[in-house]
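ARCHIVE CARD
CATEGORY: sequence design from structure
SOURCE FIELD: tokenized fold
FIELD CONTENT:
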């Protein structure tokens, strides 16, 4: 057996999305100040992770988690060169030190809240079921103040919506 414990805990996709929307509603209700006042995306990611933890009991919800087992997460660098780069997803829902990866989230806070080339490449790679990480779902959230955020779901290495 590899150093990663084999698990097969799956949650139905609609249940994952439903739980996410409860968490995002809590973020807007309780932490609008963060979204309105240009704080760093890490502050928003942290608060969102707290609300996600309440929705995913029994799972680990981590910010900027850079490990895959005991190794460091790396992906091909799609944006600048052909080399591999270390990656730190904004938020992940997973079971640490396993291949049980449920949800990976990239967050952006800016007026142009669309998915950029680099985030698209990361979420595509993280959700590719033939890749190293095999997250069940990926999610891009583009915040622009208190306006409705852009939500883009990824599944099986592709944009789903």
């Amino acid at each position: 057996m590899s150093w990663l414990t084999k698990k097969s805990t799956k949650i139905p996709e609609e249940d994952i999305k439903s739980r996410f929307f409860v968490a995002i509603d809590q973020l807007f209700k309780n932490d609008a100040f963060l979204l309105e006042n240009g704080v760093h995306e890490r502050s928003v990611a942290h608060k969102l992770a707290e609300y996600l933890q309440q929705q995913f009991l029994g799972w680990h919800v981590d910010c900027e988690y850079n490990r895959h087992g005991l190794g460091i997460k790396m992906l091909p660098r799609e944006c600048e060169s052909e080399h591999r780069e270390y990656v730190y997803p904004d938020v992940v829902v997973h079971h640490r030190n396993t291949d049980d990866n449920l949800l990976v989230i990239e967050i952006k806070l800016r007026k142009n809240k669309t998915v950029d080339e680099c985030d698209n490449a990361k979420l595509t790679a993280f959700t590719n079921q033939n890749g190293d990480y095999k997250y069940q779902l990926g999610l891009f959230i583009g915040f622009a103040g208190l306006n409705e955020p852009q939500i883009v779901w990824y599944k099986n290495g592709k944009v789903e919506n």
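CARD ANNOTATION: The domain at 13-159 is CATH 3.90.1570 (tt1808, chain A). The beta strands are 60-63, 67-68, 71-72, 74-76, 84-86, 91-94, 101-109, 137-143, 150-155, 158-159.
SHELF: design records, drawer C
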